[in-house]
Amino acid sequence: MGLFSGQFSNVVEWEEFREDMIFYKWHNNEIKKGSKLIIRPGQDAVFLFNGKIEGIFKDEGDYDIESEIIPFLSTLKGFKFGFNSGMRAEVLFINTKEFTVKWGTKSAINIPTPQLPGGMPIRANGTFNFKVNDYVKLIDKIAGVKDSYLVDDVKLRITAVLDQLLMKWIVKEGKDMFNLQSNSFDIGNGLKTDLDMQIFDTGITITGLSIMSFTYPEEIQNMINKTASHSMIGDMGKFQQAAMTEGISTGKVSGGGAAADMAGMMMGMQMAGQMMQNMNMGGVLPNSTMAGNQPAENGQKPNFCPNCGQKTGEANFCPNCGQKLT
Q: How far is CA 142 from CA 19, 89, 158, 211, 232, in A?
């Protein structure tokens, strides 16, 4: 037996592991005496006999099939290897990780809205997550007839119904067509539930779904941006002043023509008016804007020097310029 054992043995493993492969089926004519099973991190190994599950092995490592695997198989636990014969079985390796997939609407979705008779065309994009959760259903619906299964296969099935379901959840609760992003969490949760039902029978479950953004037609997006900017400005007068100043400083209002002159005049008048208002409110000139610079009447000393504007106090002459104050 020892002379021929190397000739008959084989290694049962997922040799060409791919991150985007959900499962891989190992099958040969026979599993020979002395064969080993190798389970790597992130893999489960499912032994199949006549299309039915015989045993599921989840711990990573190297195992002698005859002594460490067969004793735990359902109907093959008493199997004995012959000299020229082996065990006819298949081994399904399943990728146990959670997959993340990017998605996007295949075309614009026309959402019914009173403002637009033909509906508002909206696109959306985001990610969804899934993993295998039921090996029996997976084998019954997919692995029974396929040797491998890719993430793209799941994505194809999801995107086939995603647009229709997305429209359902946008319309369902009368969401604000112009503010969908604020409702993206609720829409995403509803969409996740429906997509999970779509692939429930395959043994795969949707573990998460997020909507990154909604995209409107360019004209609608410009209108939304303008409305948002107006609401943020608040005081349109200050906004116009700032816009005018920016236009002159950047050269957008230039050339020395009538437009530039008028803009400069308006800005100067507005600035002067604002300065006068601030001075009056501050109490610097309580009676009038020029009251402090007028000569004293009725023999009273002025509060401010009529020559230089310096505050006078009780002195008869200005402490700054020497002007007589009486």
A: 19, 18, 16, 29, 55
CA separation for the pair 124, 188 (Å, rounded): 11
Pair 28, 53: CB distance under 8 Å: no
Q: Which of 95, 90, 92 is nearest to 41 (CA)?
A: 95
Let me know if 157 is exposed, middle or buried by CB neighbors in 10 A (0-12, 13-18, 19+).
middle
Name the burial class of residue 95, with classes exposed (0-12), middle (13-18) and buried (19+) by CB atoms within 10 angstroms of its CB: buried
Amino acid letter, 249: S
More confident residue, 287 or 221: 221
Backbone angles phi, psi at 49, to 5 degrees: -135, 120
Q: pLDDT per residue over 101-147, tens digit each? A: 999 998 888 888 777 777 788 899 999 999 999 999 999 999 988 99
* b/e map 278-311, b = 16+ CB within 10 Å: eeeeeeebeeeeeebbeeeeeeeebbbbbeeeee
Dump pLDDT digits (tens) for 211-269.
Answer: 999 988 776 666 656 655 555 555 556 656 666 666 656 665 555 555 555 556 656 66
Contacts of 133 (CB under 8 A, 6+ apart): 203, 204, 205
Say if CB 305 and CB 312 are below 8 A apart. yes
d(CA 209, CA 187): 10
Percent of the chain past pLDDT 90, that is, above it, reads 42
* Nearest-10 crossing angle of helices 184-198, 151-172: 130
Q: Is 167 helix (H, G, I), strand (E, B) or coil?
A: helix
Element of type H or E holding 238: helix 236-250
Q: Which residues pair with 7 in a beta bridge?
A: none
Asked whether the whole model's pTM tops 0.90, one would answer: no
Cβ neighbours of residue 3 closer than 8 Å, sequence gap 6 or more: none
Which is more confident, 298 or 309?
309
